[in-house]
């Protein structure tokens, strides 16, 4: 069980501290990010920075949680029960592909993996603040679609996980390992469409 992370102190300068920290963590990684550089980027003194976050690890956790929550809320807002599965899944796939390939998503993933032995709670917090929220919302939508007879799914959690993995097909590994060139919009759309088509081929009712 990951150690419980104490809450950060709130205050007027919290937003600029988080934004400055985000800039430096993405540029230098967790290990390479210095408190001096973070304070400078945030436009605050080191004393002010330490008053909010006495531990750099806690600051990184807060940055990751805030960014993941923002991304998750944007994705969740697109998943509405008013639309048919193809429309909802296409919107969800587009958002998932965009996030997993984003500079923040990739760099945070690498940091969490690199620090997993020393700070296992980093990955836990990152997952719970974003991917887990989107996963649960997809599960909820799939349950509604099954109830309307639009999909046939017996294991909703497995189906949601399968969909998320389809949205990462090839592209995620290529970016993480630095193989090939940058992924353009046509490739992203191709993977998103392919994820939807394969998912529906498995779970949509036969005509």
Automatic annotation (TrEMBL):
Keyword terms: DNA-binding
Where's DNA bound on this chain?
34-53
Q: Name one Pfam family in it.
A: TetR_N
Cross-referenced InterPro entries: DNA-bd_HTH_TetR-type_CS, Homeodomain-like_sf, HTH-type_TetR-like_transc_reg, HTH_TetR, Tet_transcr_reg_TetR-rel_C_sf, TetR_C_Proteobacteria
HTH tetR-type domain mapped to chain residues: 11-71
Keyword flag Ligase: no
SUPFAM superfamilies associated with the record:
Homeodomain-like, Tetracyclin repressor-like, C-terminal domain
Q: Does the keyword DNA-binding apply?
A: yes
PANTHER family per UniProt: HTH-TYPE TRANSCRIPTIONAL DUAL REGULATOR CECR, HTH-TYPE TRANSCRIPTIONAL REGULATOR RUTR
What is the recorded name of this protein? TetR family transcriptional regulator
Give the source species.
Cereibacter johrii
């Amino acid at each position: 069980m990951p150690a419980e992370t104490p809450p950060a102190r709130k205050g007027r300068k919290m937003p600029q501290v988080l934004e400055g920290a985000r800039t430096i963590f993405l540029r230098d990684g967790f290990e390479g990010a210095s408190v001096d550089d973070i304070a400078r980027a945030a436009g605050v003194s080191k004393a002010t920075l330490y008053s909010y976050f006495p531990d750099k690890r806690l600051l990184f956790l807060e940055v990751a949680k805030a960014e993941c929550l923002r991304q998750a809320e944007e994705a969740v807002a697109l998943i509405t029960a008013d639309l048919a599965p193809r429309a909802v899944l296409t919107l969800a796939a587009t958002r998932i592909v965009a996030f997993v390939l984003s500079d923040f998503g990739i760099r945070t993933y690498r940091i969490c993996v690199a620090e997993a032995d020393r700070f296992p709670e980093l990955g836990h917090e990152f997952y719970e603040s974003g991917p887990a929220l989107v996963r649960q919302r997809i599960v909820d939508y799939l349950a509604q679609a099954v109830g309307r007879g639009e999909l046939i799914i017996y294991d909703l959690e497995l189906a949601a996980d399968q969909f998320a993995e389809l949205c990462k097909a090839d592209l995620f590994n290529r970016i993480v390992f630095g193989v090939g060139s940058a992924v353009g919009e046509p490739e992203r759309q191709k993977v998103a469409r392919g994820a939807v088509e394969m998912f529906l081929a498995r779970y949509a009712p036969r005509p």
